[in-house]
Give the backbone structure.
Amino acid sequence: MDKTMCSDGKARETVDSWFVAGMIKATSDLWLKGWNERNGGNVTLQLYEEDVAPYLPRWDGQRQLPLGKALPALAGQYYLVTGSGKYFRNIAIDPETNIGIFRVNKAGDAIDVLWGLSDGAFPTSELSAHLESHEMLQRRPGNQNRVIMHCHATNLIALSYVLKFTTDDLTRALWEGSTECLVVFPEGVGALEWMVPGTNEIGGATAALIAKHPLVLWQYHGVFGRGASLDEAFGLIDTAEKSAQIIQKIIAMGGVRQTITRQNLIALANRFKVTPLASALDLER
């Protein structure tokens, strides 16, 4: 990592933090997968008080930006976010310009940029979808999700053109595409029909689905994944994407002749003690 691009010693200390280093690795991995071309995709990581406490005295950013929708439940919370119009491939070279850390203000209607997003950069245009998803997930008892990850996973997007686009049909197809899928995402994949990105409307629709399903597929666009860590969110998307690739190969070879059966899926769920999405499991195939 080239730290010469960081403006001073204080910035370099932040770049060495576990959370910035983790974001650099995750976004680099996403770009290398080919899922985040140009400035596509975005990631948020919630930071806890104990994460930021050692660095707060070093952060002198005071820029405030309004939120399109007030989220008072997130007041005082800290997030690491990728920048709008920024290329994931450049984050490792110049993290201070391409990512940033902000705190939601007391009213929940604006954010204070504390570090990064230098030269007047803004957080991702999909910030509404991220923050509304975080807010919705925090309502869940025992919630441990602190990452929302959006990318343009090639094969998952392709499936949105050819499969019947419902949550149950998409989920069942991916479960059958690879044995580990039911174990990794038993709650299924939410299917969100095409909407204009970067709006409060798609933010609310995404949040409603991601509270029920760890993955949400935006039709013809990309996928959102959640997780307790950057690795978990990345691995979740990677697993679903591998199954989507297998499904495409099956279609190209003439289609399914045999598949993982409902009874196979039930046996798998029992073995790994997970509860599959019932409506997908009971889908007539």
Remarks:
- The longest strand covers residues 110-116.
